[in-house]
Amino acid sequence: MASRAKATIFDIAREAGVSKSTVSLVLQGSGLIRPETAVKVRKAIEDVGYVYNRGAANLRKAHSNVIGMVINDLTNPFFAELAVGMERVFQSAGIVPFIANTAENPVRQEEVLKSLMEQGVAGLIVSPARGTTPGAFRRLELAGVPVVFAMRRLPESRIPVIAPDNHRGAYLAAAHLIAKGHRRLAFFGGTSDLVVYQERLGGFREACETLGISARDVLVVEGETNRRGGLACLDTALTMAEPPTAALCFNDAVAFGVMLALRKRRLEPGPDFAVVGFDDVVEAEHYMPALTSVAVDTAGLGERAAHVMLKLIQSRTTRAEDHIGAVNLVVRESCGPDLRTRNRPTGTGGAA
């Protein structure tokens, strides 16, 4: 009988009279082994004094049952909803999800990625922090760790992305505002170093150009992607000689800030200034007034990201197709018509 200090899988196989692969399958809890064989192997394990080192086994398999979910801003309800969708899939698959909030800090993100790599994670789903460079993930790619980007992509990166159709969503929102009679439009929030910002602003500009809005009547105000950013954007816009009458916001968080800023000025979102968000978080429907927003299947995108990750792990690859999710505009009370155009032929309808 082998000594306890030196017992190996080979010792178990010899003791039980089975192959090394059979022992490995029993240790992994596989259901492919006949019950009587599994009993015989477990008895041999006890007899030789073998201790199963799960950490070492994970390293041999090149992955564990832990997946990292690295989110850029968990204070934004959208990303919390996204994480719930991921977690639902991982839990049903017996995977342990580890979630980290980088708070839009690429330095913090690098620390989190380094720590998760040292823990031998099976894979990573990341919504990159603002200021992230493609090189930040090069070490992960070289190590063969599967990575999936959620919501945000990086320029020139080959890492698969799960995201909504940002361009189309912004086009639909701008077209709706124009159909309401608005002729001076604004785009609030976000910064030009984000690809998602470029996609949403691009759709907004295309709708304005296609539907006859002059470039001089389009205002773009960059800002933080939260309520504070919305407050600042609205204040900037209303100081202009000819302020806009409506705005598409980078996301719902910015839109909520814009609505707060309007109320501070004793203006009512909807009748006095039309506001449209992007993401359609749960809070949007229950806000006062209810927020018109570009609806994204947030939980569905989270679930898709998780399924792609599981497939990458199972197929031992790091390559997958991008997935661009469908969007639609959910019209509520926050975007009424421009009352100054109500007598013009181009004006349409009442408040949505």
Structure, described:
The chain is an alpha/beta fold. It has three domains: 44 residues, 434 Repressor (Amino-terminal Domain), CATH 1.10.260.40; 128 residues, Response regulator (Rossmann fold); 144 residues, Response regulator (Rossmann fold). The protein is built from 13 helices and twelve strands. A six-stranded parallel sheet has the order 2-1-3-4-5-11, with helices on both faces. A six-stranded mixed sheet has the order 7-6-8-9-10-12, sandwiched between helices. Strand 8, helix 11 and strand 9 form a beta-alpha-beta unit. The N terminus and C terminus are likely disordered. GO terms for molecular function: DNA-binding transcription factor activity; transcription cis-regulatory region binding. This is LacI family DNA-binding transcriptional regulator.
What's the arrangement of strands in the largest beta sheet? 2-1-3-4-5-11
Q: What is the total number of structural domains?
A: 3
Radius of gyration: 27 Å
Strand content: 15-25%
Highest CATH level, the class of the largest domain: Alpha Beta
